[in-house]
Amino acid sequence: MTGDDTRFMALALSLGRRGAGRCWPNPAVGCVVVRNGRVAGRGWTQPGGRPHAETVALAQAGEAARGATAYVTLEPCAHHGKTPPCAEALVAAGVARVVTAFVDPDPRVAGGGHAILRQAGVEVTTGVLEAQARRHHAGFLSRVVQGRPALTLKLATSFDGRIATATGESRWITGPEARRLVHAERLRHDAVLVGGGTARADDPQLTVRDMGAAWQPVRVIAARHLTLPRQGRLWDSVPDAPLWLLHGAREGDVKPEAVEAWQAQGARTLPVEVAPSGQLDSAALLSALGQAGLTRVFCEGGGALAASLLQAGLVDRLVGFTAGLALGAEGQPSIGAMGLDRLAEAPRFRLSSVRQVGADVMHEWERA
């Protein structure tokens, strides 16, 4: 591994981030084709997952790919799907060397891409910027290895951890700069998730606004009984952005006419098992989203959903926006009851970054 290897892999990772939120269920791969120290082609996974990053970069490089080095943020695919394997495309293009970040754990690949390259006489180097690449591909890895998308939980609160006054007033606790960053986070994820209580109380659109977005993340509402109002902003905006509704799978959990009405409006409905607590089972909820193809989900509450996800150990990343005001004990807490008796039972997270955003503080945490 050389200094050039790390430099060009860093470039490939930056390109891959351009596909985040747009290419699920495929990983957001980046690829750079380099010949004689100069970039001849670059690409990233396109919307919907195709074409793959390698295909885009090779097409841009053309004949310059022959004898070149390709830097790819994940092992090139080795299986035939709707497109031929990228490993074979690299061989056909005459690439002399391929540098990857790590082996793809997908059973359809799992070293097979590297094997195709080596059998064709292509030099393969792997493990370059592996930690950074695993962080970038965390959603894809979670879906492949654990069967669920990676989950980010966002909390925007007062200094004392409240999300609204006792009367329910909540607009706006944080400032416009923080709210804009929340929209940017939505754009980087496949889906935005909230609980049914939040949907009923706020009637949110959950869309990305005022950022020139050319696409919208999937909006997901977890509501066991599907007692959501069939009017207002959420109902009216179904044709404008994908809406998935998770509801109870047991008989009597939801009225058939509610399912039919939302489906007729254009929403997708997904039945989910119910936990003994009476809420939708958190693990089953995320498993359903993983089976549907999602790799990265951005949860914006409410309190009961946040508590259940934390209790189940399903939160991979916490993003907090804290404002400089206090609402007191009568204010509504950001996280519902968790039934903890001892500190040792509380889920722990490791601080990864802190910064000022307008008049607020943004702090990010990763699961310890």
Automatic annotation (TrEMBL):
Source organism, top-level taxon: Bacteria
The residues listed in the UniProt record as binding Zn(2+), with positions renumbered to this chain, are 52, 77, 86
Keywords of the record, alphabetical order, are:
Hydrolase, Metal-binding, Multifunctional enzyme, NADP, Oxidoreductase, Riboflavin biosynthesis, Zinc
Pathway(s) where this gene product acts:
Cofactor biosynthesis; riboflavin biosynthesis; 5-amino-6-(D-ribitylamino)uracil from GTP: step 2/4; Cofactor biosynthesis; riboflavin biosynthesis; 5-amino-6-(D-ribitylamino)uracil from GTP: step 3/4
Q: How is the cofactor bound?
A: Binds 1 zinc ion.
Instruction: Provide the active-site residues from the annotation.
Output: 54
Q: Which residues bind NADP(+)?
A: 156, 172, 198, 202, 302-308
Q: Which residues bind substrate?
A: 170, 186, 206, 209, 300
Q: Which GO terms describe its molecular function?
A: 5-amino-6-(5-phosphoribosylamino)uracil reductase activity; diaminohydroxyphosphoribosylaminopyrimidine deaminase activity; NADP binding; zinc ion binding
Read off the Pfam families from this record: dCMP_cyt_deam_1, RibD_C
The biological processes this protein is annotated with in GO are:
riboflavin biosynthetic process
Query: Belongs to which family?
Result: In the N-terminal section; belongs to the cytidine and deoxycytidylate deaminase family. In the C-terminal section; belongs to the HTP reductase family.
**What is the protein named?**
Riboflavin biosynthesis protein RibD
- Gene source species: Tranquillimonas alkanivorans
